[in-house]
């Protein structure tokens, strides 16, 4: 499932970010979004973009197009 499809408050694990460009993937990895890392959606903006996600205790805002490229597996 894609990160953008997760419901608020549900926790999952990042499985793949292969759909992203190398530079974008590297920036996310520096911020803690790594494969096999727990991640959860905190809230979604009223128009659906951006999403607030929590990873390793830090909240990040991700665009929906970026979240569409991150695969997660629900816990």
Describe the structure.
This protein is of the alpha+beta class and 75 residues long. Helix content is 17%, strand content 36%. The protein contains 2 helices and 5 strands. The chain has helices at 22-30, 64-67, and strands at residues 11-16, 38-44, 51-55, 58-62, 71-74. The protein has a 5-stranded antiparallel beta sheet. It starts with 10 loop residues before the first strand and ends with a strand. The mean pLDDT is 92.
CA-CA gap between termini: 12 Å
Proportion of residues in β-strands: 35-45%
Helix content: 10-25%
- Largest sheet: number of strands, sense, barrel closure: 5 strands, antiparallel
What value does the average pLDDT take?
A: 92
How would you spell out the order of helices and strands?
EHEEEHE
Structural class of the helix and strand makeup? alpha+beta
Stretches where pLDDT is under 50 for at least 5 consecutive residues are: none
Q: For the largest beta sheet, what order do the strands appear in spatially?
A: 4-3-2-1-5
Got a strand count?
A: 5
Count of helix runs: 2
The gross shape turns out to be: globular
- Oligomer state equals single chain
Compute the gyration radius: what is it?
11 Å
């Amino acid at each position: 499932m894609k990160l953008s499809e997760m419901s608020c408050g549900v926790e999952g694990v990042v499985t793949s970010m292969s759909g992203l460009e190398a530079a974008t993937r590297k920036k996310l990895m520096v911020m803690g979004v790594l494969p096999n890392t727990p991640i959860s959606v905190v809230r979604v903006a009223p128009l659906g973009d951006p999403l607030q996600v929590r990873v390793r205790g830090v909240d990040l805002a991700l665009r929906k197009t970026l979240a569409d490229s991150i695969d997660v597996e629900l816990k």
